[in-house]
Amino acid sequence: MTTKSIRISHDIYEKLVEIAGKIQMDTKKPASIEDAIKYLLRKKISDLAGSWEIEDNEIKEIKESLEKGWKNWK
Asked: How far apart are CA 45 and CA 7, in angstroms?
């Protein structure tokens, strides 16, 4: 298998390390940055359903913004 090098920012690298750590805790096996990337690539948008913690005031703000947008669109 051939490999490629990619450049990522330090903060993205830290997030990938965090994800690899979670994978390692779940599987009880060593996990690499590549494992973290593979994990993220397997995710579907439907996997995120219910994962957003939102406050009531944020819901109100989103609804108001959508209503305003729909009025302007018509």
From this structure: 25
